[in-house]
């Protein structure tokens, strides 16, 4: 449906650390956890709730519970590293996995794993930190739709205009929540200025 670029100062502060080349993997993981918590908060601000009554130690009072059953769907490998903050935030959440890998030469993404639960009536939260050409996200949303998912919300850390356009052209109903909309892609389809290879920086691989 649309692109939401966070303006929250804490998001911008975390992003500065994630971008900086000198940030070590252990620091990178902490910053990733923080920024995903904040983006997930923003991405779910419009979930509907139902009224309930609870008893505090002192009195009965009106309260509210989230109506939605969420399904967090990390795109392996980098998406796996941003799953745990989402699991900590929500109580009614299950997990589906999609494995996609870009060919280093062509930048085309190939599906190597797909384990999604039935998504009918649930709210899919697609987790992939980098939206570059959009090839991975387009295929991920196709798999989500094939499993009955509607109204996907994608959480990413950095998006390129090319990826946003590709995703919204193929799947205009998707909502994208990101910390930054960057300038574009380089000749290797890496995001500029970006933050490099998110998976490598998160997992400490070369
Ligand atoms: C990265 C990233 C996305 C994809 C984005 O994964 O995590 O999945 O690239 O690029 P795209 O928009 O051009 O498809 P990568 O293929 O590097 O695999 P990894 O997560 O295993 O490092
Ligand atoms: N994947 C990444 O990890 N970084 C990019 O800039 C593009 C794809």
Automatic annotation (TrEMBL):
Pathway(s) it belongs to: Pyrimidine metabolism; UMP biosynthesis via salvage pathway; UMP from uracil: step 1/1
Protein name per Swiss-Prot or TrEMBL: Uracil phosphoribosyltransferase
Coiled coil: none
GO molecular function terms listed in the Swiss-Prot or TrEMBL record: GTP binding; uracil phosphoribosyltransferase activity
Source species of the chain: Candidatus Dormiibacter inghamiae
UniProt cofactor(s): Mg(2+)
Family as reported in the entry's similarity comment: Belongs to the UPRTase family.
Source organism phylogeny: Bacteria, Bacillati, Candidatus Dormiibacterota, Candidatus Dormibacteria, Candidatus Dormibacterales
Listed EC numbers: 2.4.2.9
GO BP annotation list: uracil salvage
Alphabetical keyword list: Allosteric enzyme, Glycosyltransferase, GTP-binding, Nucleotide-binding, Transferase
One Pfam family from the record: UPRTase
Span of domain Phosphoribosyltransferase: 5-205
């Amino acid at each position: 449906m649309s692109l939401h670029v966070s303006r929250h100062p804490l998001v911008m502060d975390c992003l500065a650390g994630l971008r900086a080349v000198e940030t070590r993997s252990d620091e990178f993981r902490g910053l990733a956890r923080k920024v995903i918590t904040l983006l997930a908060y923003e991405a779910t601000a419009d979930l509907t709730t139902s009224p309930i009554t609870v008893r505090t130690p002192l009195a009965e009072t009106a309260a509210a519970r989230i109506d939605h059953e969420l399904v967090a769907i990390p795109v392996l490998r980098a998406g796996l590293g941003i799953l745990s903050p989402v699991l900590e935030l929500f109580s009614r959440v299950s997990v589906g996995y999609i494995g996609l890998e870009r060919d280093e030469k062509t930048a085309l993404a190939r599906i190597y794993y797909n384990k999604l639960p039935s998504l009918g009536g649930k709210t899919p939260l697609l987790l992939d930190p980098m939206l570059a050409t959009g090839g991975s996200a387009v295929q991920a949303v196709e798999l989500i739709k094939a499993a009955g998912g509607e109204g996907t919300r994608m959480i990413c850390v950095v998006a390129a205009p090319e990826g946003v356009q590709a995703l919204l052209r193929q799947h205009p109903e998707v909502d994208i929540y990101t910390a930054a909309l960057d300038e574009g892609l380089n000749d290797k389809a890496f995001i500029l200025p970006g933050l490099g290879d998110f998976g490598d920086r998160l997992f400490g691989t070369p």
